[in-house]
Amino acid sequence: MAMIAHKCSDHVVTVVDINEARIAAWNSDELPIYEPGLDEVVKASRGQSLFFSTDVDTAIREADMIFMSVNTPTKTYGAGAGRAADLRYIEKCARKIAEVSEGDKIVVEKSTLPVRTAESIKTILHSNAKGRNFQILSNPEFLAEGTAIADLENPDRVLIGGDQSPEGLAAIQKLVDVYAAWVPREKILTTNLWSSELSKLTANAFLAQRISSINAISALCEATGANVDEVAHSIGTDSRIGPKFLKSSVGFGGSCFQKDILNLVYLCEFFGLPEVAAYWNGVVEMNDYQKQRFARRVVASLFNTVADKKIAVLGFAFKKDTNDTRESAAIYVCGDLLEEEANLAIYDPKVPESQIRRDLNAKDGFESVTVCKDAYEACSDAHAVLVLTEWDEFKALDFQRIHDAMQQPAFLFDGRNLLDLEGMRKIGFEACGIGQV
Ligand SMILES: NC(=O)c1ccc[n+]([C@@H]2O[C@H](COP(=O)([O-])OP(=O)(O)OC[C@H]3O[C@@H](n4cnc5c(N)ncnc54)[C@H](O)[C@@H]3O)[C@@H](O)[C@H]2O)c1
Percent of the chain scored above 90 by pLDDT? Predict the structure, then answer.
């Protein structure tokens, strides 16, 4: 929304949220999300074309177009628990729009939703229409955290789905006009509603599948002496495969991949396609395996016990350039090591201590978890150092200094293949990465 406000300064964009603390943060100097370039975009438009408010009703009443961007987490209760999307927030939004709207509205699904959710939204809005006309569009968001601003500024494509009726096509055109302010027209794709909804789930399933595929090969590399980075490079030069998203790691995280694949799995089961469901579920299973495998390797290397040993963890965010920890591989690896009674010293450049403690269920005073101000403090006196997020600053650390301050032998486990392992071995580390011996 900040990018739309920035590029279409003749429009008024009002972001509303029921979370008062979040809106206060959006109106402050300290934005609630760390994302390179976001501060500049928000601060350039805030108070002119971009506003943040908790007054949901007024914003709905005044808007011609409403983007529903609420959370759609995995359902934790009832039918489909653990896989289906929890649509309660979407439904509440739809009901709110029906309740307070005074005129016609274009309602845009921006959240990632199961196929045919627009049908339910239509039913809610149309059965409360009272003479007002509601058009529903699907406009899934393809930005990636960490590169959100660049992705929004120069998207591979913008996707807009809508009814193919004259009113639907007119609504699609209105949203096309918004994006056409900065996105080349040929990159704005229009489809029917269901294709648009399904494309978002499919895109995330394919992206996650590439990571799980290369991670599966990483296990075979460790068993055979092949090097997964070399294999990834070799296959990525095949133009039919391509080089992106072939980086093997400790496992993918983030708020979207797992939730969206599980949602796809649930849809397949719902529509009576168990083979298709099992095929996509394998992507999530492989990711769980990769996270567990990493923790097991740490324990096995440290003479089969990490109990009472200090383990330094560098990086807690699910990837670099974000402070988001949702489904971060670090949470699972740390959880497994805490079960083995390790003492963890964790450092991340952007994730606050309170978030790390919440994720690990480690209240203040829980002695097995210490959150450190820098990498050197985390690694001092440690038996092993684990790199779990690929932050650029970790490449510039003085690893000789780190090594010399650790217990010997000093172990290093690079869960992102970020560091030069040969160089680390020369320093004296017992070093291992992913998919290489
Ligand atoms: N995070 C990403 O990178 C990303 C990328 C593409 C798509 N998506 C999709 O976008 C959606 C939102 O993701 P997110 O990461 O921003 O989630 P989030 O949980 O960070 O934010 C959702 C916000 O919606 C607010 N909200 C909930 N119910 C509301 C209501 N009735 N009225 C007003 N506000 C309400 C919450 O308070 C919260 O601040 C999800 O469907 C997600 O799958 C996210």
Answer: 98
Reported pTM: 0.96
Q: Ligand 1, atom 43: nearest CA belongs to which residue? A: 112
> Does the beta carbon of 249 sit less than 6 angstroms from any atom of ligand 1?
no
Q: In the chain, which stretches have pLDDT less than 50?
A: none
Q: Tell me the best of 27, 71, 207 to mutate to test the pocket of ligand 1, counting ligand atoms within 8 Å of each CB and taking the most.
A: 71
**Cβ(176) – ligand 1 distance below 6 Å:** no
Spacing, Cα 40 to ligand 1 middle (Å): 22
How many other CB atoms are found less than 10 A from the CB of residue 35?
Answer: 20
Active site residue 379: no
Q: Are 73 and 114 in contact (CB under 8 A)?
A: no
Q: What is the pLDDT of residue 364?
A: 85
